[in-house]
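User: Hi! I'm working on a homework problem where we have to compare a predicted structure to a textbook description. Could you give me the structure for the chain below?
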Amino acid sequence: MADRKTGEIVHKLWVGARARCPHCEQGAMFARLFRMNRLCPACGVRFERQDGESIGGMVVNFSFAVTTALAGFFIVEAASHPPLLTQLLIWSVYCLAVSLLLYRSTRGVWVAVAYLTGGVRRDDEPAETRGGDGR
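Assistant: Happy to help. Predicted C-alpha cells:
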C-alpha cells in the first residue's frame, strides 16, 4: 500500500463505501440489503478469503456510531440537561440506526482496505500480484 498514491487510495475507499468492487469498480458487493456476494459478479474477485474478515468493518461501524453518540450525549447534556434515561434511550436508538444505515458502506470500505493490502483478488490470481488493478 506504501507505493500507492493518496488519490488512488482515497478513490478505492470511496468505491468501497459505495459498495462496489474495488478491483473493477463495477460489480455490486451486496446481493441483498445485508447479504454480501462472495465473488464480484462482474470480474470474479473474492471479497473475503476467510470467515471473520468483515469484523474490521463492523468495528469501524460501531466505533463511528458510539463516538458520535458520545459527542451528541455530551452536547445535549450541556445544552439542556434532559433526564439520563431519556438520553440513554435516544442514543441507544441512534447507535442502532446509524449502525444499520452505515453497514454496507463500512463493510465496503473494509473490503477496499483488504484490496489495497492484497487480500482481495481472483482465486486464479497468484498472491504476488495482490492488490494491483490488473484490469
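For your comparison, note the following. Residues 3 and 9 are 10 Å apart (CA to CA). The first helix runs from residue 6 to 17. Good luck with the assignment!
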